[in-house]
Amino acid sequence: MANVTLRNVRKTYTGGFEAIKGVNVDVADGQFCVLVGPSGCGKSTLLRMVAGLETVTGGEIDIGGRVVNQVEPADRDIAMVFQNYALYPHMSVFNNMAYGLRNRGMKEAEVKTRVDEAARVLELTPMLERKPRQLSGGQRQRVAMGRAIVRQPKVFLFDEPLSNLDAKLRIAMRVEIRKLQRRLNTTSIYVTHDQLEAMTLADILVVMNGGQVEQVGNPLAIYEKPATTFVASFIGAPPMNLMSTRIDEIKSQLGAGEAGILGIRPEDFVITEQTPAGGVALPLTVEAIERVGAETFVYGSRAQDEQRVAATPGELPPGEVIVRIPGSEAPPIGQKIRVAAVRNKLHLFSGDGRTRIEA
After folding, report:
1. Of 80, 165, 306, 358, most Cβ neighbours within 10 A?
2. Domain ABC transporter: where (predicted)?
3. What pTM did the predictor assign?
């Protein structure tokens, strides 16, 4: 096991395109770190740089106290699980898992011991003689994980390993990966674009955007206090409602006359006729309803012509708003309602969305 430290890591391609713009991340020994962000944000490039599959333009990658910028992938003591499984179709499950160990010249008795133990942990023992074509998608992914486990590396790297699975199997495999990582206590770096997957797996969450890190921290802490409007809108489903601030009580937090952005999570709105002291409220016209079992999403809008000339203190400007309410009951489409949020559930950001403003 080992810690992984990235110090001002950069990647610039021919032509001057800067894919990674000075990333600093410290993953402690035994931690599960998740890199999350939209397509093209640089998360897979960063993972491949840790693996040695991409060269480093600037900065340092340190694994277990050793800078590995110039170290070949095979000598970094890491194991990588890919999105497409990358199994040998003509080999049995046992031989797929044993292949890398045999290439290293390991004795057959030790190979069998390691493969049998990994198969037991992953519940693959009854399938050791099968070929990949005889396995389900989830079973193939477990074989790919087993091939990494038998290496007993210092660091596991996962490159969107669940993206080819259906939704139900993704949930099951997500739980298996987390249980397995805790059992092995091996430092792990995991890439995904799925923010729910990221939130449930991570000890440390790294939110990326445009080749740089927007925020690093505990997943719940990031959810509760996003550092930027990008993080606020990316982490959480449905996303946080974001709108310009136009009321004195909120603008005063930003400095005299300075514009800002107010964020409110859908679950922090309640349907009420009251405006809480220091909070905000607004009238909505219900435009759409999504019932998703134990809760319902209400999509509302406030038309421009509903904006009062003298707005009630605490009311917000026109725009679309998502409200999450418990249960399956919801106001009918077209009905006018009023929603409100209390002061300690409000999030304030600078006008450019790059800075969080604490009340």
Report:
1. 80
2. 4-235
3. 0.86
